[in-house]
Amino acid sequence: MKRINNKIVWITGASSGIGEALTYLSNTKDCKLIISARREEKKSLSFI
Questions:
Q1: Given a cut of 60, is residue 39 above it in pLDDT?
Q2: In sequence order, what are the residues at sequence separation of 6 or more whose Cβ sits closer than 8 angstroms to the Cβ of residue 34?
Q3: Tens digit of pLDDT for each residue in 11-25?
Q4: What's this model's pTM, rounded to 2 decimal places?
């Protein structure tokens, strides 16, 4: 995933499944994240 360095990454479905996993993985890279999810109660991810 080195191609996302210095990029803006928008992840939809960030509250569960692949979207959640990509959010946590992308958070360890040098990129800016925009995350979105449908379920309000799950939008608060622990690293934010």
A1: yes
A2: 8, 9, 10, 11
A3: 998 888 999 899 888
A4: 0.66
- Residue 32, sorted as left (phi over 0), alpha (psi -120 to 50) or beta, turns out to be beta
Say if residues 24 and 48 touch (Cβ distance below 8 Å).
no
Alpha helices in the chain (DSSP H): 17-27
CB-facing half-sphere around the CA of 30: CA atoms within 13 A: 4
Q: Which two tokens stand for residue 48?
A: 């934010």
Distance CA 22, CA 13 (A): 10
CA distance 32 to 17: 20
> Which residue is it, tokens 């996993």?
21
